[in-house]
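Example 3.2
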Amino acid sequence: MADTEQTRLIRDSAAAFVRRSDGLKIARDSRCRDGLTPLHSVMAESGWLGMLVPEDDGGYGGRFSDMAALCEELAKGLAEMPVLRTGVFGCRSLVHAPPSATRTRLLERLVAGELHLGVAWHGGELQMTDDAGSITSGRLEHVPCDSAVDGVVALAVSQGNHALVLLPFEGAKLTVEREWLVDGTPAVSLTVPGSGIDAVEVLATGEAARNAFQTARLEATVMASAALLGVMSASFELTRSYLCTRVQFGKPIGSFQALAHRSVDQYVQQQLARDVLAQAIEALDAQSGLRSPAVVHRAKARCSDAAMKITRESIQMHGAIGFTDEYDAGLFLKRAIVLNAWLGNSAYHRRCYNNLDKETA
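Structure, written as tokens:
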């Protein structure tokens, strides 16, 4: 799938941003530190967090192909997380909710760069009152965000029905347990106090809530796949450069067949992942919308496996230097591990794909 002129401009802008901001240094320095990084404000000012908000809702009405290019380029500098969490999953959860004053207000804040969100996609459950007016109890585990976000989007349950809610951090008296993922990015586990929470924003109820959340999750899964493509591409280029410059026995080590053949295999896996991802992006951008989640499951499984293979072998092909904390190869491997697990790893998506085949058989 060839880039349009607009997509090329977005890709070039993101690449320049990564070079200018030294994303790898920020990723290294911000490990195991809570709070918004300097990248958040710049991304908000650039309009990237509101790219997928429709024009009718005050956003930029960007295409998924544009967002995928943005995520891919940012991921080469390990700077994609704010966009994935707020600009994709959080944003699209709001977009797919039924029209309401709450939805309009939150989207306006998101487009203005004033709203930063986390999304609880697994682990734990929130219980609501029958009228969906307040949260009575519950716990959300391992939500990938820092404690400085404005709130967490989650599905709550009331009498067997779902409600899509925004759980605010400020004034909610939540018990917040900070955690760190393998790449040093933050996550939190949240426990609702015994007195419950009244100040909760209800975005949708019933089947509309479930559909909005699941659709946003599928869209975020494709963008996570694009980020994985960026990580594996940067890792591959780092390894290729090393193989061309490291000399042993009077020759660049990349000329040795054992390493050359592994590099070719990595390149093939990278291109296969790119092709499968392009099909998923085209499906999202189609006027008819996403007809089947099969392309999403296939893209995430393929990109996860390829990224894990390329980043792991990068460490091996570098030798001892690849194991050092000062070298960048380990940063790409750890981010690949986190993105692989986010919204389901390759094994999970293969099971989902197989189950779709059984349902249509």
